[in-house]
Design goal:
By secondary structure, the chain is α+β, with helices and mostly antiparallel strands. It has 10 helices and 5 strands, in the order ααααββββααααααβ. It has a 5-stranded mixed sheet, sandwiched between helices. It is globular and about 40 Å long.
């Protein structure tokens, strides 16, 4: 591909992103990336991934704060297996394993939240905690062991706030310091909001 065409495509895509952001349309950005660059053989080329990362800086979509609690559970249960540039994260019911990959500040994951919603899902959050990029209170984390979030979220019809409220209520009844729990989650969430990372889709999607 000529440098002229490459520059033209990157400029064109930048314009598309500006239009989408202006109209508050962000959920189709990854789809448009793929449609434009798959035909040009640019997908997964490091130089293009860096361009994507620059474009997405400052437009990161934040997850529901309850995803912090789900990340706590992943850590408490030992469901995150870290490698040099990737991690395997088992779901809370053990039925699925998600892949998280990273290169610098670019994180890709195959979990549904990251893949479809465009925000860091709990597997990405758990990895960031293990990397020391997000605060993680070990005392609080232990409280979240053994929670089947898959079934809990299904029970509450994916109302994550209601599912988390049930968990927090159970912890309160067991005598846990729920204010410390909320503070730990809030601290991690604030740190995530200030973290300059880019998230995207890993290739092996888990539905």
């Amino acid at each position: 591909m000529s440098s002229f065409l490459y520059q033209h495509l990157t400029n064109l895509y930048a314009q598309i992103i500006v239009i989408m952001l202006t109209n508050n349309i962000v959920n189709k950005i990854d789809y448009i990336i793929e449609q434009i660059i798959l035909t040009e053989g640019l997908l997964y080329k490091p130089e293009f991934l860096k361009i994507i990362a620059v474009w997405r800086t400052g437009m990161k979509k934040m997850p529901p704060v309850e995803k912090i609690y789900e990340a706590f559970s992943a850590l408490a249960d030992g469901r995150v297996k870290m490698e040099e540039t990737s991690a395997a994260v088992r779901s809370s019911n053990g039925a699925k394993t998600y892949t998280v990959q990273w290169e610098g500040d670019l994180y890709r994951s195959s979990d549904s939240a990251t893949y479809w919603q465009g925000y860091p899902g709990y597997p990405v959050i758990a990895v960031l905690m293990l990397q020391g990029r997000l605060p993680c209170d070990s005392v609080v984390v232990k409280l979240f062991a053994g929670i089947n979030w898959t079934e809990l979220n299904k029970k509450h019809k994916r109302d994550y706030a209601s599912a988390a409220a049930e968990v927090i209520n159970d912890l309160s009844e067991k005598g846990a310091n729920v204010e410390a729990v909320r503070a730990a989650a809030a601290g991690a969430y604030a740190a995530l909001e200030n973290l300059e990372i880019t998230v995207g889709r890993a290739s092996d999607k888990q539905s």
